[in-house]
Design goal:
16 helices, binds 3'-phosphate-adenosine-5'-phosphate sulfate, 4-stranded parallel sheet, 7 strands, about 45% helix, 3-stranded antiparallel sheet, about 325 residues, alpha/beta
C-alpha cells in the first residue's frame, strides 16, 4: 500500500486520499505527476490529468462498469455547468414520475449531484463494484472522463451520451474559484497566474480541456444518435430550444399536451440558477463526501472571465483555442 498524502484529520473527506490498493498504486506511481489545484497531485493517465483520489474510481469504472442500452451518461469538462444539466436531465427524463412542480420535487431537497452521481468520482470510488441495481431506468450517470477513456461497454452499447462544454475562459475562472473555495490554501498554488499557466498547458482536472472537448465534438459528428454536444452559452441563450433538442435526442420529446401545460417552462424554472441556488439544501447542505453544495453555485453567467483575466491572458487562451480547434468546425 502506498500513501500519497500525509495523514491529516483536519481535511474533509473529499480531500482525503485513502491508501491506494496495490494494483492502483503501481499504476499511479508510474505516471507523470504535477502538483494540482483542488487535488494535491494530478496524474497523467492515458493522456488525461486525474487527481490521486479519483484514480481508484477511474480504474474500477473502466474495468467493471457494464452499460445498459437505456443508460444516459452526462459528460462535461469540470465547471461547464454539470450541476445545471444534471438537474435538467433528471427533471426531463423523470417528468412523468415527478411532475416538475415548484412545491414538490426531488430537486427541491436533493443536490443534483446526488440524483445524478459521478460514476468514477462517486460510485466507483466508494466500492470497486458498486451496487447499481437500485437505480431507476433510465439510469442517469455522469463523468468528466474523455471519450477515449470511457469503458468499452459505454462505447459498444446503445447508451446515450450528452456532452456539455463551456468556453475555456469561463471554465477556467469558475474552476479557479471552486478550487480556492474547497481546498486548503497550503495545497498547490494560490496564484491565479500559476493556475492559468497550468490550465494553458493542459494540466487541469480531466484536462487538457481542449482534448476533452474535441474528443466528444468529433464523436458527436460521427455518431449523432449516440453523442449530443451542448454548450453552456447556447443553453443560456435558448433554454427552451435546447431542452427540446435534449428531449428529442433522448427519444422522449414533449407532446403537444405537455407543451400546452407548460411542462418545458416548469422544468427550466425548477432548474434555474435562482431557484436551485436559493434552496436550503443547496445553501447549507453538503454532498456525501463533504463538499458544500453552495460551492456548485456561484454566478452562473456567461462572460465573468472579463472580471478576472488580463488582456494577455485573454489573448493567450483565445490563441490556444483557435489553434486547437482550427479546422474542426467547433467554436466556443
Ligand atoms: N442552474 C444553473 N444555471 C446556470 N449556471 C449554473 C447553474 N448551476 C450551477 N451553475 C454554474 O455552473 C458552474 C459550476 O460548474 P459545474 O456544475 O460543471 O461544476 S462541477 O464540474 O460539477 O464541479 C458555476 O459557474 P460559475 O458561476 O461561473 O462559477 C455555477 O455557478
Amino acid at each position: 500500500m502506498l500513501s500519497l498524502q500525509p495523514p491529516s484529520s483536519t481535511l474533509p473527506n473529499y480531500l482525503q486520499e485513502d491508501e491506494l490498493p496495490q494494483e492502483c498504486s503501481d499504476v499511479v506511481s508510474s505516471l507523470p505527476r504535477e502538483t494540482g489545484w483542488i487535488a494535491k497531485y494530478l496524474h497523467q493517465y492515458q493522456g488525461c490529468w486525474i487527481a490521486t483520489r479519483y484514480m481508484k474510481g477511474v480504474l474500477a469504472f473502466q474495468k467493471h462498469f457494464q452499460a445498459h442500452h437505456t443508460d444516459i451518461l452526462l459528460v462535461t469538462t469540470p465547471k461547464a455547468g454539470t450541476t445545471w444539466l444534471k438537474a435538467i436531465l433528471f427533471a426531463l427524463v423523470n417528468r412523468v414520475r415527478y411532475r416538475p412542480d415548484p412545491l414538490q420535487h426531488p430537486l427541491l431537497t436533493n443536490n443534483p449531484h446526488v440524483l445524478v452521481p459521478f460514476l468514477d468520482v462517486n460510485l466507483y470510488t466508494q466500492s470497486q463494484v458498486p451496487d447499481l441495481s437500485s437505480f431507476a431506468f433510465p439510469r442517469l450517470f455522469s463523468t468528466h472522463l474523455p471519450f477515449a477513456l470511457l469503458p468499452t461497454s459505454v462505447k459498444d452499447s446503445a447508451c446515450k451520451i450528452v456532452y456539455l462544454c463551456r468556453n475555456p475562459k469561463d471554465t477556467f475562472v469558475s474552476l479557479w474559484h471552486f478550487t480556492n473555495k474547497l481546498r486548503p490554501t497550503a495545497w498547490g498554488t494560490n496564484s491565479l497566474e500559476e493556475a492559468f499557466d497550468k490550465f494553458c498547458r493542459g494540466v487541469s482536472l480531466y484536462g487538457p480541456y481542449w482534448d476533452n472537448v474535441l474528443g466528444y465534438w468529433k464523436k458527436s459528428l460521427e455518431m449523432p444518435q449516440k453523442v449530443l454536444f451542448l454548450k453552456f452559452e447556447e443553453i443560456k441563450e435558448h433554454p427552451a430550444a435546447n431542452l427540446r433538442r435534449l428531449a428529442e435526442f433522448l427519444e422522449c420529446p414533449f407532446s403537444l399536451e405537455e407543451k400546452a401545460q407548460g411542462v418545458e417552462d416548469n422544468i427550466l424554472r425548477l432548474c434555474s440558477f435562482d431557484n436551485l441556488s436559493n434552496l436550503e439544501v443547496n445553501k447549507s447542505g453538503k454532498l456525501p463526501a463533504g463538499e458544500e453544495n453552495n460551492a456548485y453555485f456561484r454566478r452562473g453567467e456567461v462572460g465573468d472571465w472579463m472580471n478576472h483575466l488580463t488582456v494577455e491572458m485573454i489573448e493567450k487562451l483565445d490563441r490556444i483555442t483557435e489553434e486547437k480547434f482550427h479546422g474542426t468546425g467547433l467554436r466556443v
